[in-house]
Amino acid sequence: MAETSETRSIFVVGLRNAHAMENQALSIMKPQLSRIENYPEVANRLEQHYRETEGQIRRLEDVLEGLAEDHSTLKDMAMSFTGSMAAMGHSIAGDEIIKNSLANFAFENYEIAAYKSLLTLAEQGGFTASVSALKANLEEEIAMAKWLDDNLATVTMKFAGLSEAGVSAKI
């Protein structure tokens, strides 16, 4: 499949959606980072991924700029708002760390799917200049999803142990 105006349009919309998605990710992680007390390993990995996400946003902006396009400020604001609301909803849960871990894992897999879709369009549609940036973003999302998956049992058991000891374990 070669680049057509329709393929380009679909690709640009996907890039704008990914940019908004990454802004949403920041708005989800920021409140979590400010609240984590008993899970330093989670805080450290979230902080690392927060910085990675900022880099992912810059890569997406570079790709859009290379196409003489810009991100959608309206989409960015809307997605950031929904991310903040989701994070706030978990903060009232007695098992906030568990809810965050589950939601973060689901969101990472959503991001992985989004980047796989964008890579398909980039590779098949002739947008080869964007492939390395999209692959870099995908690799970071896969690594974060794997970390969350590998650490879910540990976080769950730590939560249970702190709860049994009468320590505030929610976050």
Secondary structure: elements and pairs:
Blueprint: H1 5-35, H2 40-66, H3 73-91, H4 96-125, H5 131-164
Can you give keywords for this protein?
171 residues; mainly alpha; Ferritin; 5 helices; elongated
Please give a quick description of this structure.
Pfam families: DUF892. This protein has 171 residues and is mostly helical. The chain has helices at residues 5-35, 40-66, 73-91, 96-125, 131-164.
Question: Would you write up a description of this structure?
Answer:
The chain is mostly helical. The protein has one domain: Up-down Bundle (Ferritin), CATH 1.20.1260. It is built from five helices and no strands. It has helices spanning 5-35, 40-66, 73-91, 96-125, 131-164. Helix 1 (5-35) runs antiparallel to helix 4 (96-125).
The CATH topology assignment is Ferritin
* Global mean pLDDT: 89
Strand proportion, as a percent range, falls in under 5%
- Give the number of helices: 5
Q: Which percent bin holds the helix content?
A: over 70%
What structural class do the secondary elements suggest? mainly alpha
User: Uncertain regions: pLDDT < 50 for 5+ in a row?
Assistant: none
Judging by the overall fold, what is the CATH architecture? Up-down Bundle
CATH homologous group name: Ferritin, core subunit, four-helix bundle
Measured distance between first and last alpha carbons: 48 Å
CATH class wording: Mainly Alpha
Shape: elongated
Record field, number of beta strands: 0
The topology string of helices and strands comes to: HHHHH
